[in-house]
Amino acid sequence: MIALAALPVILATLLIGARGVATLRSTSDFLVASRRISPTLNAAAVSGEYLSAASFLGVAGLVVKNGVGALWYPVGFTAGYLLMLVLVAAPMRRTGALTVPDFAEARLGSPRLRRFSALVVLVIAGLYLVPQFTAAGQVLTVVGGTPYWVGVVVAGASVAITLALGGMRAATYVQAFQFVLKLVLFIVPAVWLLLAVGADTRREALHPAEYSRFPAATEVQFRLDTRLEVREPITVLADGVPRTLGPGEHVAPEDGRWIFPAGGRMPEIRGVALPGSEPWQRPLLDNGSGHPLLATWSVLVATALGTMGLPHVIVRFHTNPDGRAARRTAAITVGLLGTFYLFPAVYGLLGGILLPELYLSGATDTAVVALPSRVDGGVAGTVFTALLTAGAFAAFLATSLGLVLALAGAVAHDLLPGGLRRLRVSAIVAAAVVVPLALLAVRIDVGAVVTSAFAVAASTFCPLLVLGIWWRRLTPRGAFVGMTVGLLSSAGVMGTSLLLRPEPGLTALLLGQPALWSVPLAFLTMILVSLADDAPPGAESTMLRLHLDETRTP
Question: How many CB atoms lie within 10 A of CB 252?
């Protein structure tokens, strides 16, 4: 029954999409809503699009899993818009481009660079989109017991139909509506939770003690093979069979269902601090690497600089009437995001003391929607679980709309240029391709995979945009080689890390979170290769067009 809470959100999305049919007549209508979106509406839409599953569920889940240091993620997410405001927003709008690959060709005159940029869009959007559909399936499974595939398919179908009907204009109104909805449905349950748990729990959340023993018999379903460190003997019911675990290391198998007894000491996951422990409370990210400062800086570089390179975010500034409006959009967005990001900490800190079994299972992404029923098993818990489910589904749909739009633009505008019909078909095909990928990715860590998309964006499009906008000596070959190096040193290295699965430590950190070195490497490569080439012709006039305020009259 709770799963039906997502139904009004889905119906509203489809109805708003249907209203966009009458205004959808051209490629410009589909991709940038004919550049007629006001700054306030656009900022609400940008915020709705940007506050994805990683924001609504992932940040709170990361706090449960990694401790208070995970709150650096929203800092990086919001800081990215400050950098966008200063460096990118207005000049990007003045190019007249419809997509990031469009900008690459307009700035450097290279069709080959445009095609390569379109391929990078596919990589970034794919890494970002799969977790959105995955989270939709996971949430409906947790709160309503529906099969995992139902949430994935419903999310994919809703997004594809909305975009095919109304394009960017429909997406804008849907995302603005869903931002307001998410803000209300995230804040109201948070206030209720703080009041419902009582003063003692609130104090414990602010000054947590290590969660060392199970207060009641607790069932844990392990998503993956999990290496546990047992400190004292404990007898568990492993898939219905009693099993005594002595001190030392044990492996809980994938899909295993273990019931831990009340009073039993909680085992630790190797390399991951227990909720409430001293490492968990440190204001830095560690993830078992042993190098928390490096890990924190790597996440900040990926999230802040990656924001400037996200194709579905960049295209939003092309929907404004002019560069000044684009800058106002970025400024308003910073305020809206800052308001929203006050609240993931509430869910994460409460989840750390009320739902520590999620630490063992790895299902920390579901902490937000699991909290109300843990605090109140009655009607109130059910109602607030339904509200959070609706808000979570709004987050999946809003972000997915922008990502599928970016995919459709990369395919039907940059790789295989066509008209409005091809764009509409491409949106449906893109969603149809991502849905099976999400069905196979049921056990992924939503927050971690989304962060990898930021790392790729920071290592590829961020150098292209910053140097392309502010350095006239950038050449097509420099941009191409630099983006190639950035792609290989981010996506390629992270893929290698998944295959090798290195032991926690410095090597695992540098491979799994490469932004700290891959971004400077991409910038340096672009600069050195460009300096070895002749200055591109027409760079001066192009730079003037990027930086001359088009609202001034002679």
Answer: 23
